[in-house]
Amino acid sequence: MQPPDLADLIRRSTIFAHLDDAKIAMLERRMQWLCLPGGQYLFKADEPSDALYLLRSGSLGVFDGPTNLMHQLSAGDCVGEISLLSGGNHHLSVRALRDCELLRLDAAAFEALVEHHPTTMLAVARTATLRLLQNTRRIPSPNRPRTFALLPVDAGVPARALAQQLATALQELGSCMVVDAELGKDRGSDWFAEREAWAQFVIYLDDTGDPVWRRRCLRQADVLLLPVLASQAARAWPEAEPIHPARAWHRPRHLLLLHEGRPIRPGLAQQWLAQFGGALAHHHVRDARDIPRVARLIAGYGRGLVLAGGGARGLAHLGAIRALRDAGEPFDAIGGTSIGAIIAAGVASDWDTSTMLRRYFDAFVRRRPLSDWTLPLVALTRGARTSRMLRESFGDIGIEDLPKPFFCVSTNLSGAPRAVHRHGPLWLWLRASSAIPGVLPPVLHHGEVHVDGALVDNLPTDVMVADGIAHITAVSIHGEFARHAADTEEVATPPWWRLLLEQRRGPRWPGLVSTLARATMVNSGETSELCRALAHRLITPSLEHVGLLDWKAWRRAVDAGYRATLRALEAERG
């Protein structure tokens, strides 16, 4: 293995890639080496700009304020070019997410380079413009970590076998090497930087418990991987960094629950998650088949599926899922709203296609969950049949017990409008996500009132983008929802007996339930348009022939979802 030298690093950077060998050699002489320990600032907002920095190893975070991480920079990226170009102060802060090595080019050396090679200014201007667009438009930048610290809770965890399995899966995305205590013993920072420059991914493995090596793993990592045997009693981590998010310096943390071929036992994930503070992803590893999914998610290459609400039209999701599975499309994270959330929960539960068709046909068509009508003091239905259907379908498991990462969205009438649910009873939050106002009673939980998530976000791709999912497939229930009436002026309904006679001759007044269901989806129309634009693959079944509550048309809805998905996949191939 021949690690790349400094000249190679300069050539790979966007700003200096156009320079010839003589200019690169000049840069090598003018650049100053700088070591920045993890957690320390390179510069803060409002400080004067006096240099441009090229990251040799490690990772930097660009922050708007003390905690809002906007972008992550990796080896080969430059930073400071915007302020250097404008001649003003820095607008954002940059902090080391782990130990970093940088090359510093001061303002005088940069000006000398531009004077002798004016095209450098053009390259800097292009890079600065793209960075400014990201900052002002809040365009999400992909988080592609390269180094991982695998830190088991104790020696009983088969960490070495897990590291080798993850390395094999990561090889599908790029070269990967595992560095353990024996290989990394007494090595200097240059040695680690060279390995990280050579390999796309590096897993720093601690399977000895040596505190010195464990600290080295922590210092080298973009991401902390924290494996446990799920059957063990939950307890605190041996060191503070994984437990306290402030000590982790905004590095992602992933709890890996190893089940060793056993079924997921409800409640275990919640017990382990309770040991941590702040944001923490968790993954169930039942056996080797889950490893590729985990590898994609931790490396920033995850594939997500988002399903929209839409009443009976949402059964089109079943056809879309069948076509996607037939095409061999994997999904690592799942989310949705309303009936989209209910069907997404089946995907996250790893139900096969035939099981999903059977269970959802029984749940929505045969059992008619919206048929327990009552005196409409709160809603037209009691909601008992819907709640019972969801509990019988999914049991009493928590969202955190699902085999795949899952979220659903409800509308919170008591606080911030959009509530994203990742924890707690699955059936309860599915019930909240699908509580059509006026049709189903709201869900009351800890003093808050939750109703259908379609009011605020019917296609929550933005949630998945914020989770760092690299490729999102979204199924949008975007058929014609408009309600039309006879060409006449009416401001009050006629007496009930005349209304019945008129309705028999052809619908003149829209039904109460369908009006309420349609009204639920109007408010989120603009949000859904924005969220549709975030999808990398957007599937829009043609569903004008299926009513919002026309459950008997389930077969037409499923077929429409299947055909639309085939068209989308064929368009990608062609």
What would you note in describing this structure?
The chain is of the alpha/beta class. Strands 15, 16, 17, 18, 19, 20, 21 and 22 form an 8-stranded mixed β-sheet that branches. A 6-stranded parallel β-sheet has the order 10-11-9-12-13-14, with helices on both faces. A hairpin with a 5-residue loop joins strand 17 and strand 18. Helix 13 (316-326) runs parallel beside helix 22 (554-573) and helix 16 (384-394) crosses helix 17. The longest helix has 20 residues, at 554-573. The relative contact order is 0.09. The model is unreliable at 479-485 (pLDDT under 50).
Q: Could you outline the blueprint of secondary structure elements for this entry?
A:
Blueprint: H1 6-12, H2 21-30, E1 32-36, E2 41-43, E3 51-57, E4 60-63, E5 69-73, E6 78-79, H3 81-86, E7 93-96, E8 100-106, H4 107-116, H5 119-137, E9 147-150, H6 159-170, E10 176-179, H7 181-184, H8 189-198, E11 201-205, H9 211-220, E12 223-229, H10 240-243, E13 253-258, H11 268-273, E14 281-285, H12 291-298, E15 303-307, H13 316-326, E16 333-337, H14 339-348, H15 353-366, H16 384-394, E17 406-412, E18 418-421, H17 426-433, E19 443-445, E20 448-452, H18 461-466, E21 471-475, H19 496-504, H20 512-522, H21 525-534, E22 537-539, H22 554-573
Parallel strand pairs: 9-11, 9-12, 10-11, 12-13, 13-14, 15-16, 15-21, 16-17, 21-22
Antiparallel strand pairs: 1-8, 2-7, 3-6, 3-8, 4-5, 4-7, 17-18, 17-20, 19-20
